[in-house]
Structure formats: C-alpha cells, structure tokens
Amino acid sequence: MGESVIAGLLRKNLVDPAKIAASHPRENRRAELVEKHAISTFADNAEAVKFVAGGENSAIIICVKPQRLERVLNDLKGILHPDQLVISIVAGARIEHLAEELGTAKVVRAMPNTPSQIGAGITAWTCTVAVDETERSHVCELLSALGKELFVETENMIDMATSL
C-alpha cells in the first residue's frame, strides 16, 4: 500500500518527488522505488523521517504490515516533533498506541481498500482532536490520491469499514 500512496500522490501532482522519502530494508526494493518514482529512499526509518519532517505540510505516513509496526515505532521513538502529523495505514494500529509510542498528539488512522492501488478506492479515516482543520484538509487532499476519502467519527467505524 505504501507504493500505492506514493504513486497516487505523484499521479495527482500533490507532492514533488524530491520531497518524498521512503524506507525499506531491502536495497533492491529501494532502488526500484527510486527508478520508478524518482524519490529518495533510506534503509533506516529514522533517516527517512528526518528527510521529510518539519517541512511545510509535512506528514509521516506509516505503511507497514502490523507485525512490523513495533520495530518502526521503536526506530521513530523520540525523533518526531510533538506537533508532527503522523498518518497510519496499518491495520489494527490504534491511535492511542501510536500517539503514545511516537510522542505526538497529531495522529491520523486511515484504512484504504484494495482499489486504492489504482486511485479508485475509498479510505475511511479518523484522527485525534489535536489535528486541526488545516491539517485535516491536508489529510483529505493526500488521501484523495487513493480515490475517495471518508472521515469517520471513531476508530470503531474504521474497523467496521475494514470488515466490509
């Protein structure tokens, strides 16, 4: 799903490829992403975050399989600014847990469906109260790269949408 997000952002010209960084443990996969999308890649999660964090409208998007989440959270612990916006596309990862582990109150939880890979999906999402209206608009714009986006009031509604 991570590459789907990158492709969607680039397809809709929402982000300059020079401002996108991705991390992946395998060198051949990083090279493939660079060749295909002209983005920056890193073997280290913290280095990827440092590359993008703090820029105007910057957001950290976490797209990993649930079993890899704790490693990523450990890698990022203590390096995010408390006001850094984090968007999670990790099945089952609760907002409260992400906020606590990352030390930021601005967390979005999103769950796109499979058609999102071609920009024709729908993404249910919610966020903490710390995410302000400007940031919510930014999230809407980013998620629209995957198709339609739908803000829901609670995480339980995301779980319901996922099951559908």
Task: Tag the structure with descriptive keywords.
alpha/beta; 7 strands; 164 residues; 5-stranded mixed beta sheet
Estimated radius of gyration: 15 Å
Overall 3D form = globular
The N- and C-terminal alpha carbons lie at a distance of: 18 Å
Kindly state the number of beta strands: 7
Tell me the strand percentage band: 15-25%
Q: Average pLDDT, to the nearest integer?
A: 92
Q: Main sheet?
A: 5 strands, mixed
SS class? alpha/beta
Range of helix content:
25-40%
The stretches of 5 or more residues where confidence is low (pLDDT under 50) are none
Summarize the structure.
The protein is α/β, with parallel strands linked by helices and 164 residues long. It has helices spanning 2-11, 27-37, 45-52, 69-76, 95-102, 133-143, 155-163; strands at 21-23, 40-42, 59-62, 85-88, 107-112, 121-127, 147-151.
Structure, explained:
The strands form 2 sheets. This protein has a 5-stranded mixed sheet, with helices on both faces. Strands 1-2 form a two-stranded parallel sheet. The mean pLDDT is 92. Strand 5 and strand 6 form a beta hairpin. It has helices at residues 2-11, 27-37, 45-52, 69-76, 95-102, 133-143, 155-163, and strands at residues 21-23, 40-42, 59-62, 85-88, 107-112, 121-127, 147-151. The protein is 40% helix and 20% strand. The protein is α/β, with parallel strands linked by helices.
